[in-house]
Amino acid sequence: xxxxxxxxxxxxxxxxxxxxxxxxxxxxxxxxxxxxxxxxxxxxxxxxxxxxxxxxxxxxxxxxxxxxxxxxxxxxxxxxxxxxxxxxxxxxxxxxxxxxxxxxxxxxxxxxxxxxxxxxxxxxxxxxxxxxxxxxxxxxxxxxxxxxxxxxxxxxxxxxxxxxxxxxxxxxxxxxxxxxxxxxxxxxxx
Length: 190
Description:
By secondary structure, the chain is mostly helical. 93% of the residues lie in helices and 0% in strands. The chain contains 4 helices and no strands. α1 packs antiparallel against α4.
């Protein structure tokens, strides 16, 4: 009549322990530093992959454009011949273009290479310096947030561990009190 039996109390205690164990496991999984770092690492690598994918898409589009230009160039002689009949100025312009393409197709002389290298070196060095500086700035900007994230994870893990220990102690105390009360009730009922 409203009184619980010893078996019922034991079942309630087991259910409480099981629920508490699941809760502790879930909290532990959420605050384990290795898992938090793994989640952050996955997020950063996904962001990097997104940037790389966007860049590689641009490179792929440029490669397709160059390929289209090459096929148009190979079809050009036949088309030029059919269109220039009776037009000497057009034929002369095409001859000039073909000569230009042939000049571009042969390897440049050493003097030409030296001039180009000097001009490119002057233009590439500032860009290289800017990219190096930007990379160093990114590293510097990420050092502090990464250290802060590690400290935050560490502090969160410590707080969670203390809370879990406190909750476990409270649950154990309540369970002990409940069992003692149930045992006393069972003895008095005998």
